[in-house]
Amino acid sequence: MSHDVRIGTSGWAYPEWRGGFYPKGLAQKRELEYLAGQVNSIELNGTFYSLRRPSDYRSWHSRTPDDFVFAAKGPMLVTHRKRLVDTESALKTFFDSGPLELGTKLGPILWQLPPSLPFDPGVFEAFLSTLTQWPHRNAIEPRHASFRNSDFFALLRKYGVASVIADTAGRFPRFDEQTADFAYVRLHGHEELYASDYSDELLDVWARTIRGWSGDVYVYFDNTMRGAAPRNALSLSRRLGLNVPLHHGV
Asked: What sections of 18-116 are H helices per DSSP?
């Protein structure tokens, strides 16, 4: 594959992973280093719930390999409270809080929309237009069926934004359109949301699908509740022949 493929998990600090994926006795403060030694990317999901400090981003940068990449989940203030309306101030506050401190390790910004938010072309284009003040890769994960609309995909293409391909055990609509020069995939669980393991057969299907895409690919396993996410990320990475370092810094 000539394109850059990044595979990892959504977050890393989960009690369910301790004593299973994380070796017994591993200090919690070393969990990021342990995971980053085995996958080549992680999706920051804590950034959705609250603003972090620039020092947090600098710490994450310093504790991961040189060629590591983080995706960052945009704040719920923008997506769930403001519902994409009048977002300039909130976006400035988010970008000023430190994500750009990651430098070349910052991958796409993920914007996960609430299931109650329908597609409004005017609101959506105003949001995408505001985002252009911070030139960066962005990915949108809608969860309302009204986004299955040619105008939505046309706007994403106009602004170079990826439509997230999300496997949600059928809970939310799945959108498979590729709208940017990169693809963004979130695997929340095929049978049970945030929990179920991905079978070898399903991982084989995803590996074949990813090989068929052009452009960079970002894949994050969010089936974190029972510890399947890191195992699945490693299994998919092996299928795609990704060369990731082992146990960096641990």
From this structure: 31-36, 46-49, 54-62, 76, 88-96
Q: What is the DSSP letter of 37?
A: T
Alpha carbons 22 and 16: distance in angstroms, whole number? 9
Picking from 45, 92, 94, the residue whose alpha carbon sits closest to that of residue 71 is 45
Residue 218, C-beta contacts closer than 8 angstroms, at least 6 positions apart: 6, 41, 69, 71, 107, 108, 139, 182, 183, 184, 185
What is the torsional sign of CA 46, 47, 51, 53? Answer: positive
The predicted model scores a pTM of 0.96
Q: Please tell me the distance from the alpha carbon of residue 86 to that of residue 99, in angstroms, as a whole number.
A: 21
Nearest to 159 by CA among 186, 135, 187: 135
Q: Which residue has the tokens 């969990």?
A: 31
30: DSSP letter: G
Q: What token pair was written down for 208? A: 């074949």
- Report all structural domains of the chain as residue ranges with CATH numbers, in order of start: 5-239 (3.20.20.410)
Tokens of 51: 């603003």
- Digit-coded pLDDT (tens) for 115-148: 999 999 999 999 999 999 999 999 999 999 999 9
Find out whether 10 and 47 touch, Cβ atoms under 8 Å: no
Query: Of 6, 17, 14, which is closest to residue 42 (Cα–Cα)?
Result: 6
- Which residues touch 195 (CB under 8 Å, ≥6 apart)? 189, 223, 225, 226, 228
What is the gyration radius of the CA atoms in the chain, in angstroms? 17
